[in-house]
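Standup notes
- DV: blocked on the single-chain target, sequence here:
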Amino acid sequence: MGRWFVLLLLVAQSGLLPAATIGKGVARMDTLTITSPAFAGGGTIPARYTCDGPDVSPPLVIGQVPAGTVSLALIMDDPDAPMGTWVHWVAWNIPAQTREIPENSVPAGASQGRNDWKRNSYGGPCPPSGTHRYFFKFYALDATLNLASSATKAELVRAMQGHILAQGELMGTYHRR
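- DV (later): unblocked, structure below
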């Protein structure tokens, strides 16, 4: 138990998640593998998926989820925005069996919340200056969430507390030309 407690404490202190978010009865937190056929992790997000193109969501691939996963949640944000972290996309109740989210789509049964443009949809990178990092964060949950369609990232994070079995992220960058 001591070794796992230290690992969970390190994850919590890393800023990835507060310690209270770890799922009930979970001895350790698994990692989800998130990839995209459109860009490599740490690579440049193509203009197609930004405000300089048609602004459609990129295709995303989710690796194996842990046993007991009931649903997935997604948060896409930009921590480099001048006024603080800018939320581009919020979705929850993505079916647990989802392994791929095709370009410009949301899985059947999933809900989308309000992003910082006050829209319930994907809003691609559109940095005012410089190169920004964009994080597509996925969470495997041991529950479905009962949230209003007006829910924000903060409300989703609160609702996920105590239900996260695993998490993973894909980071891409974008710089307007």
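- Follow-up: The chain has one domain: 2-175.
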